[in-house]
UniProtKB/TrEMBL annotation:
GO biological process, one term: L-proline biosynthetic process
CDD domains recorded: AAK_G5K_ProB (cd04242)
Recorded superkingdom: Bacteria
Pathway: Amino-acid biosynthesis; L-proline biosynthesis; L-glutamate 5-semialdehyde from L-glutamate: step 1/2
Entry binding sites for substrate: 57, 144, 156
Source organism: Parasporobacterium paucivorans DSM 15970
Entry keyword Thylakoid: no
Stored InterPro entries: AceGlu_kinase-like_sf, Asp/Glu/Uridylate_kinase, G5K_ProB, Glu/AcGlu_kinase, Glu_5kinase, Glu_5kinase/COase_Synthase, Glutamate_5-kinase_CS
Gene from which this protein is expressed: proB
SUPFAM superfamilies the record matches: Carbamate kinase-like
Catalyzed reactions per annotation: L-glutamate + ATP = L-glutamyl 5-phosphate + ADP
Protein name: Glutamate 5-kinase
Disulfide bond in keyword set: no
Length: 279
């Protein structure tokens, strides 16, 4: 059975969607029909008996529009206030949409510091496992109001890899605004070639991920996705970067179709995500 075929058997899956994939570029407002299609795809995976976690960015983007802030560059307090406004609205939309498919959704707000504290890490892990037993779908985001780490320097790509590591997920899917990893940023270098399979993460590969300045609401870029791949694969979690333009790719990926860039996991016995984060 090839690597793609094996995706059909993945039981515990983390799906991360970025701000730029959730909002209309022109208005910055939530793409409601895409949110509906995303929720339907995740509810379907859950109905197949899989444990599903959604890491959803977008709080800052939603809150920014609600607060009527139109500047591209936000101060940190503005970002934190927008996140506080937007997270409530985003979660309300998710809860409404999941309920239409008879699914319980649950908000889990974490920070990198949650993961660094032994007791908080233990509590977070217990919460996720209990939610799975209830058949619930956790919707995770950074608790931007109390942690600036992720807004300023981090991103939800890394956060989703940390979550995948602590719950021992089988697969992490990062939905982005591009088809996957290229040899260079294709928006800057038309000669860049697509890479569909990464058997092993090497220093040369890590150099391919040019960091793009986060959008005024997003913070990722490909370099953070490769950092996420490093955490996920060392933890025993395969990872895929795919284009979130059509969230139907989730079902096609789970059916073993050759979509996106697949990073093959190699669980490193001595790898500990907490120690990795403390570096
Ligand atoms: N080697 C690369 N392969 C693909 N995309 C790259 C690469 N280097 C930089 N990028 C850029 O990273 C962007 C995707 O990251 P990001 O802007 O964080 O999107 P999102 O928030 O949707 O995940 C791409 O649109 C592309 O411009
Ligand atoms: N907690 C922030 C996360 C920002 C973030 O990581 O955005 P992205 O790079 O689009 O995934 C928010 O919800 O806006």
């Amino acid at each position: 059975m090839n690597y793609r075929e094996q995706l059909k058997n993945k039981k515990r899956i983390v799906i991360k969607i970025g701000s730029s994939s959730l909002t209309y570029r022109e208005t910055g407002l939530i793409n409601i029909s895409k949110l509906e299609r995303l929720v339907r795809a995740l509810a379907d995976l859950s109905n197949q008996g899989k444990d599903v976690i959604l890491v959803s960015s977008g709080a800052i983007a939603v809150g920014k529009n609600t607060a009527g802030i139109h500047e591209r560059t936000l101060t940190l307090p503005q970002k934190q206030a927008c996140a506080a406004i937007g997270q409530a609205q985003l979660m309300t939309m998710y809860q409404k949409l999941f309920a239409e498919y008879n699914k319980i959704s649950a908000q889990v707000l974490i920070t990198k510091f949650t993961m660094l504290g032994e007791k908080s890490l233990h509590n977070a892990t217990n919460t996720f496992n209990e939610l799975f037993l209830m058949g619930a779908i956790p919707v995770v985001n950074e608790n931007d109001t109390v942690s600036t780490e992720e807004i300023e320097f981090g991103d939800n790509d890394t956060l989703s890899a940390i979550v995948a590591s602590i719950i021992q997920a089988d697969l992490l899917i990062l939905l982005s605004d591009i088809d996957g990893l290229f040899s260079d940023d294709p928006h800057q270098n038309p000669e860049a070639r697509f890479i569909d399979l990464v058997p092993e993460i090497t220093p040369e590969l890590l150099d391919m991920g040019k960091s793009t300045p986060g959008t005024c609401v997003g913070t990722g870029g490909m370099s953070t996705k490769l950092a996420a791949a490093r955490i996920a694969t060392a933890s025993g979690t395969d990872m895929i970067i795919a284009n979130g333009e059509n969230v139907g790719v989730i079902g096609r990926i789970m059916n073993g179709e050759n979509i996106g860039t697949l990073f093959i996991s190699h669980k490193e016995g001595d790898f500990n995500v907490v120690d990795f984060l403390k570096k």
